[in-house]
Amino acid sequence: MSFAAIYLRGEAVIVVPRGLLVQGGGYDAEPAFVVPAEPMAVAQAIEEALVVSEKRILEPAGTPVHGTGPRSVLFKALRVRSWKQFFAGMSQCSIEEIRDGWYPAGRYLIKWVPYKIGRAWTATDDTLPYPGKLLPEIEDLGAYVLDVLKDLPKMPSQ
User: How far are the Cα atoms of 59, 64, 85, 91 from residue 156, in angstroms, in the given order?
Assistant: First the structure.
């Protein structure tokens, strides 16, 4: 099992591996990948993030979460100082790869849209319930994800 959060901000795509803790909850793991909005670069970043994420699944209790993750890397790369600035004008989706368990093996896509208050994200109805929409075998994952991100609403820049 592995997860990656994927953001489109202008002409940059940010792909962040996600880790899971034994006691529940997730966190952003390093390294974060900031790549141009080009299909090959996006596909490669997703593949690399899923590999990193798989190594961060079910970290033991006590794993430091606060103050870790790609925050400084992302903020520096995008020249922002806060999460509010980071999310402004951004669209988001995520991919989860399941190999065994209750759900059929494969990759699942969850589309995220700005919540009505404009400060949080919520999954779209067409990608619920968990774990999302099972992706068919896609020859060009990067192009597919870019199309999804471009069609999703952006977080307002309040």
Answer: 34, 31, 10, 10
State which residues of the chain have pLDDT below 50.
66-68
Residue 28, SS3 per DSSP: strand
Q: How far apart are CA 96 and CA 125, in angstroms?
A: 17
Say whether the peptide bond before residue 31 is cis (omega within 30 degrees of 0): yes
pLDDT tens, residue by residue, 48-57: 999 988 887 6
Distances in whole angstroms, Cα of residue 19 to Cα of each of 1, 3, 134, 157: 10, 7, 21, 28
Nearest to 111 by CA among 99, 98, 101, 96: 96
Domains assigned to the chain:
2-151 (3.40.1590)
Residue written as tokens 């034994």? Answer: 22
| Cβ proximity of 92 and 112 under 8 Å | yes
User: What are phi and psi for residue 59, nearest 5 degrees?
Assistant: -65, 150
Could you give the C-alpha distances from 134 to 30, 84, 152, in angstroms and in order?
Answer: 26, 31, 18
